[in-house]
Amino acid sequence: MSGLMKFNLSEWALRNKGLVLYLMILLGIVGIFSYAKLAQSEDPPFTFKVMVIQTYWPGATAQEVSLQVTDKIEKELMSTGTYDKIMAYSRPGESMVMYMAKDSLKSAQIPDVWYQVRKKVGDIKTQLPAGVQGPFFNDEFGDTFGNIYVLTGNDFDYATLKEYADRLQLQLQRVKDVSKVNLVGLQDQKIWIEISNTKAVQLGVPVTAIQEALSKQNSINNAGFFETGSDRIQLRVSGALQNIDDLKKMPLLVGDKTIQLGDVAEVYRGFSEPAQPRMRFMGENGIGLAVSMRKGGDIIALGKNLETEFQNLQKTLPLGMELKKVSDQPVAVQRSIHEFIKVLAEAVIIVLLVSFFSLGFRTGLVVALSIPLVLAMTFAGMNLFDVGLHKISLGALILALGLLVDDAIIAVEMMAIKMEQGYSRMKAAGYAWTSTAFPMLTGTLITAAGFLPIATAASSTGEYTRSIFQVVTIALMVSWVAAVLFVPYLGDKLLPDFNYAPQKAPWYQRLIARLRKQPEPQPVVHAVGEHFDPYQTKFYQSFRKVVNWCLSYRKTVIAITVGVFVLSVAMFKLVPQQFFPPSNRAEILIDLKLEEGASLTATENAVKKVEQFLSKQKGIDNYVAYVGTGTPRFYLPLDQQMPQASFAQFVVLASSLDDRDEIRQSLDQQIRQLLPQVRTRVSLLENGPPVGYPLQYRVSGEDVAIVRQQAQQVAKLLSENPNTTNVHLDWGEPSKIISLDIDQDRARQMGVSSQDLANFLSSSITGATINQYREKRELIDVRLRGDQAERFDVESLASLSVPTANGGTLPLAQIATIHYKFEDGLIWHRNRLPTITVRADIRTHLQPASVVGELAEKVAQLRAQLPNGYLVEVGGTVEESAKGQGSVNAGMPLFLAVVFTLLMIQLKSISRSFIVFLTAPLGLIGVVLFLLLFNKPFGFVAMLGTIALSGMIMRNSLILIDQIEQDIAAGQNQWDAILDATVRRFRPIILTALAAVLAMIPLSRSIFFGPMAVAIMGGLIIATLLTLFFLPALYAQWFKVKKNQQNA
Q1: Out of 113-117, 290-294, 458-462, 541-545, least confident range
Q2: Angle at 567 between CA 564 and CA 569, to 5 degrees
Q3: What is the full DSSP assignment across 809-870?
């Protein structure tokens, strides 16, 4: 270290000016190129640790699926040990298990976890019941389809639209940086053969005869080939269906004569019935094209390429067919980048004004020139460590801006003061290096260490915010290098010559004098070698008196400070708590949920009512509805919904952010009145990892009936709270079923089995696939079903003619009794226990944590009365926030260890390090004061700001304590050393704090970073004052310094 201390980098810089200039130019160019290469996206890259395992078991009830399929898969998955939670639901004929990997796993470990899951589930495939289809796996959950287009055309059916959509899909796939293009809302084509059950019986045409005739005629078989002397000639047999007419004309042998299929049945082309989930844009059915970007792509560049392609594609479509934009992420990103660049520019101007006003024009210019240089070096560092531009890193850049000028201000200020005192440029630069370079480096490292807990946070929240640490650390490290290497060079070139030229009064004093028509203030002339003390001015004298008073009455000062600190900790309870603020995207989500078991037709009717209502609203650019499913992930932190017939989701694009909040509130009330039977929810997009409903309570236990009863108790508690709205259980309503009780004896005699009956009913009511029709690339199912009257009229079920083994028929009522019943249509599990979640929104301005706090006592009473083995847990925002908080807290011991080590290296004394350490929490006074004053919530981002703030505070304290130690070492008595050091460090401490605080003002308007900016502003203002007044008093008290006590 001593060799390093002897080597003076600042003096070296002045001896090798050409090299330093070259380095500055080179780094500037590298920075510009790096900026152009940075990946731009809306959100930081973020891994969704979710895998979905779907299994189908046609004909089984939800209860049977739950016990025989879902439970077995869950049990096997629980043996992996890498899960956070395993959520699963069972519906009639369908099981879906969601495996949520541990939050603390790194992104690189996830593929291995997915491999283990596939292997484990594959191992138990043989233990699942016969007739089970699957399991099928999906782990591509995090794909964000930032650009969504829709193809509509009123006069075109889905088949024609799909043909064009396929063509567009291929063309979009070729655009640079496009990863995937998915089609949304497709309806599969079907060929329907409808035959009346009674008619078939009268004519004696059994259903099996149709199936047999079709499969024999429409199959593709090899008829062999002739091998002649010269050629090999293939044989081809006709009969394969070429069009619908071929099917209508297909002959059926009935008795001894043939009839055509078209004579006994209606044959036509159609689509899936009931319909598949569909997409509707502005009230019209359409097919969506969802485009996702490849990893590490530039969203802005992709936006431009897609825009060009979009214009070209529109020209290729036939008249009446239109391609429209539904969601355009590049525009949103561009808007937020513009907004941030504007904020960055404002912050730069503010910092420049601070340095010009306080340091004078030429000294200020040194700081001004170092800003673009440090920014360029920061961009180069970001490019090196693969940190892209997105809303987190942009905010971190502005946060860093207030900090990165600190080192430059400290260095140039010290250099200017020494030159005023008569030092040569070389000597002044050398002095700045020896007296401040290392305390400054330690201070810089401590400030960076303040962000360490974010870097080490092993959670999705930590992963989402990690780039704050990366950007700030890069910026701080390069700013130190600039301060010791480039600032001396700039100072050498730009600082005025204090020794010879008459030094004019500051330019703003001269301007004021001129405006008031007063004589210009007299210039100060320094004679060569005259010892000039800039600290003799009236202002510094009075500041010295105040510090002297603080030293004399130090116990009072310390007592007041501790008292205020304790008060602020107590007041912290009044600050509203938050996880992440809502996003500043203009989209509004509307969820419609009908009762479990509702048909897709009913859902579509509800959607049409909302569409009619929306078409009359002002301030809306467009709206899109997804019927039977949720929207594709067009925004990374979206809480994505699973396909279900009774659910629909709208995405409404408001014209502007100002309109957004108004529209949201009016929609909420009006849609509720419009659809009183439907559960509706109007929400904004979230920031941070997706949570869904802000208030959630999970009730788990073995017996579904008891779980439901307890969940209703929790729901009642929630409803009684005035702040909650839209309180509901996520499942628990039974679905309607028709049960057929078969008289097995009679059925046996008639030659009818349960299986035959189920197959017959399925084919006549829903339709059975009997063959496939091949057309170009399409494979279209040919399905046979009963006519319309039999399919829709539940009453006619009893008189349905059932075919028997001997070729006769008999009415269904003769072998079965019909009952109308209810059963569970949906069963949710969490870690194998049936779990009902009670969910609610908040209608007031309170944060979720406050509402959970209000309910805590009543929920605790309810929990105490639960039977053994039953749980009530808090979920939603509060749980996610605690997870994020926990992962950050885990990094705190490392943060404290690093900071203390750095202090020890610099100060080499435990007691002095401890004094600096004690000033860290005092920033909380300002944080609480400002958050309450400006009514900002204390969220996850504000918490990160508060931790980082402690680093900034310790940096100032460290530089002051170090200066006191240097003065004592130089032989001054302790009392005077404390006074002189405080006076001497007053200007740089105030300036650096002022630069950081004022640079935060533009950032405080941001929805996302606002609370963090306000917290840092408040904390720094109060902490800076405490550094100047409380710290000297604490030092004097600690070392029992007496007035005029000589240094021993």
Answers
A1: 458-462
A2: 115
A3: EEEGGGTEEEEEEEEES-EEEETTEEEEEEEEEE-SS--HHHHHHHHHHHHHHHHHTSPTT-
What is d(CA 846, CA 577) in angstroms, rounded to the nearest whole number?
Answer: 9
Q: Is 855 exposed, middle or buried (0-12, 13-18, 19+ CB in 10 A)?
A: buried
Per residue in 498-555, pLDDT tens? 655 455 555 556 666 666 666 655 555 444 444 456 667 778 888 888 888 888 888 8
Report long-range pairs for 747-752 (Cβ below 8 Å, ≥24 apart). Answer: 747/815, 747/816, 750/804, 750/805, 750/810, 750/814, 750/815, 751/804, 751/805, 751/806, 752/802, 752/804, 752/805, 752/815
- Contacts of residue 914, defined as CB under 8 A and 6 or more positions apart, other chains included, come to none
* Percentages of the chain per state (helix, strand, coil), in multiples of 5: 55, 20, 25
What phi, psi does 155 have (nearest 5°)? -90, 5
Of 198, 218, 214, the C-alpha closest to 261 is 214
**CB contact set of 605 (below 8 Å; sequence gap of 6+):** none
Length of the chain: 1048
> What letter represents residue 356's amino acid?
F
Contact 442, 449 (CB under 8 A): no
Asked if residues 470 and 385 have their Cβ atoms less than 8 Å apart, the reply is yes
Residue type, 564: V
- Give dist(CA 357, CA 163) in Å, integer: 68
* Helix H or strand E segment including 271: strand 266-271
* Residues 669 and 561 sit within 8 Å (Cβ to Cβ): no
Give the residue carrying structure tokens 């400290």. 410
Contacts of 882 (CB under 8 A, 6+ apart): none
Q: What are phi and psi of 47, to 5 degrees?
A: -95, 130
Q: Is 370 helix (H, G, I), strand (E, B) or coil?
A: helix
Residues near 330 by Cβ (< 8 Å), separated by ≥ 6?
A: 146, 147, 299, 300, 302, 303, 304, 306
Nearest to 819 by CA among 736, 734, 741: 741
Helix (H) or strand (E) holding 737: strand 734-742
Q: Could you write out the DSSP letters of every residue in 465-492?
A: HHHHHHHHHHHHHHHHHIIIIIHHHHHH
Residues near 862 by beta carbon (within 8 Å), at least 6 away in sequence = 710, 713, 714, 717, 872
Which candidate, 950, 1009, 44, places its Cα nearest to that of 466? 44
pTM: 0.83
Q: What are phi and psi of 204, to 5 degrees?
A: 70, 35
Report pLDDT digits (tens) over 922-968. 888 999 999 988 888 888 788 878 887 888 888 888 888 888 888 88
Q: Residue 205 contacts by C-beta under 8 Å, 6 or more apart in sequence?
A: 195, 252, 254, 259, 264
Query: 599 φ, ψ to 5°?
Result: -85, 160
CA 97 to chain centre: 23
Kindly give, in sequence order, each residue whose CB lies less than 8 Å from that of residue 72, ignoring residues fewer than 6 positions away. Answer: 124, 127, 128
The rounded Cα 903 to chain-centroid distance in angstroms is: 37
User: Residue 570 has which token pair?
Assistant: 């107590």
CA distances from 278 to 272, 588, 631, 920, 949 (A): 11, 20, 10, 57, 50
Work out the average pLDDT over 706-715.
90
User: What 3-state DSSP class applies to 673?
Assistant: helix
782 strand-pairing partners: 191, 771
